[in-house]
Amino acid sequence: MSKVRVLVGTKKGAFILTADGQRQNWEVSGPHFAGWELYHLKGSPVDPNRIYASQTSGWFGQLIQRSDDGGKTWNPPGTKLEDLMGPDGMPKGGTSNMFAYEGEVGTHKWYDGTQHPWEFKRVWHLEPSLTDPDTAYAGVEDAAIFKTTDGGKTWKELAGLRGVKGQLWQPGAGGMAVHTIIMDPKNPKRIYIAISAAGAFRTEDGGQTWKPINKGLKSQYELPDADAEVGHCVHRIALHPSRPEVLFMQKHWDIMRSDNAGDQWSEVSGNLPTDFGFPIDVHFHEPETIYVVPITSDSLHYPPDGKLRVYRSKTGGNEWEALTKGLPQKDCYVNVLRDAMCVDQLDDCGVYFGTTGGQVYCSPDGGDTWQAIAEHLPAVLSVEVQTLKS
Fold first, then answer.
1. H helix or E strand, kind and range, residue 82
2. Checking phi first, is residue 331 left (phi over 0); if not, alpha (psi -120 to 50) or beta?
3. How many CA atoms lie within 13 A of 121 on its CB side?
4. In the prediction, which pLDDT does 94 show?
């Protein structure tokens, strides 16, 4: 029987949850890297035992960790742990930052509208290659994309991205980061990325050049110019691997859809109680079935009426149904962050999400019913699942 392995990044460490294909009885391993922020963990589709993790601290800096045995043991790639870590378990000065911007750093727009130099802060998202376990991409703050081809030992910026009107990009409330990286499974040269608050971008040449794909997005308060090419606060993008030209987006406000690889977007928020939120994902077997978690507003980051509800559309948007069975329907004031929802590849597609209250929920039946598979964790930053075929 197939198994699933859920990789959970939190504000105070990483946790690994495993179960068989029934997804009823779960084992919890962790915390790994206790006390550290684990922004994101993700396994290689080619070698599921190869897992990359972003371990970060505002005080001690950034480390990339790698496991080659499914999360049992970890090491910063290309080094011995004692070379990077002091006797107290903390990184030695100057060794944790392997991400250097290419060429002249330049400036971007700051909160007050003035220009501000690019400053590396942390890795938000790691996206392993679909074909090579040693190749992966990192989305970082301040917004840029980096690539490794040696299993994480070295990282090189794909600097063409910041050349696309980077001086007009501006941080949102959570910073300015490349938080979404999606590989086109049918075209290895095509990559989609999203940035808060700059918008969505696409490359057709493996990351050398990029173009903004924001036509149809409306941000009337932040961007009075309806034709602005960059500056939109995109929270998340998702696609189905069978139709990589069809994109779904959770924007700061609005659920959006594109049927032409992002060249034009249209709103599909429909009957949602609110169209503010962070994550969005697509059922593994049903390309028109999508999931979102509506949040009250951009100032009230909790579910409307204190009821935690996932909404599902089976029509690619516009028509939505609330999925509530097994989720708290009163006095629930958690948030679900952009990297904290995912789906597995089992015949009965499982859907997973984590909350800032430290719960991880699983639905083994495409959203019809839910169960908490972990509780009382630190605030969840990311959730990824690996389907391990027997």
1. helix 81-84
2. left
3. 16
4. 41
Question: Domains, the chain, ranges and CATH?
Answer: 3-388 (2.130.10.10)
Per-residue pLDDT reduced to its tens digit, 369-378: 999 999 999 9
Retrieve residue 363's tokens: 């639905």
160: left (phi over 0), alpha (psi -120 to 50) or beta: alpha
Length of the chain: 390
Q: Strand, helix or coil at 197?
A: coil
Above 80 in pLDDT, residue 60?
no
Distance of CA 157 to the CA centre of its chain: 19
**CA neighbours within 13 Å on the CB side: how many for 168?**
15
HEC profile of 106-170: CEEECCCCCEEECCCCEEEEEEECCCCCCCEEEEEECCEEEEECCCCCCCEECCCHHHCCHHHCC
Q: List, as one string, the DSSP characters of 262-327.
A: TSS-EE--TT-S--BEEEEEE-SS-TT-EEEEE-S-SS--S-GGG---EEEESSSSS--EEE-TTS
Distance CA 261, CA 244 (A): 7
Q: Give the chain's count of helices (H) and strands (E).
A: 1, 29
pTM over 0.85: yes
Residue 210 vs residues 159, 161, 166, 203, 230: alpha-carbon distances, Å: 10, 6, 12, 5, 12
**Residues whose CB falls within 8 Å of the CB of residue 299, separated by 6 or more in sequence, listed in order:** none
Query: In degrees to the nearest 10, what's the CA dihedral of 298, 300, 301, 304?
Result: -110
Using CA atoms, how far apart are residues 46 and 151, in angstroms rounded to an integer? 13
Q: What share of the chain is helix, strand, coil (3-state, %, to 5)?
A: 5, 40, 55
Residue 65 sits at the vertex; the CA angle it makes with 11 and 386, to the nearest 5 degrees, is 80
Are residues 231 and 197 in contact, defined by beta-carbon separation less than 8 angstroms? Answer: yes
User: What is the C-alpha to C-alpha distance for residues 20 and 388, in angstroms, rounded to an integer?
Assistant: 9
**Residue 259, CA atoms < 13 Å, CB-side half-sphere:** 6
Question: Given the DSSP bridges, would you call strands 37-43 and 27-32 parallel, antiparallel or unpaired?
Answer: unpaired
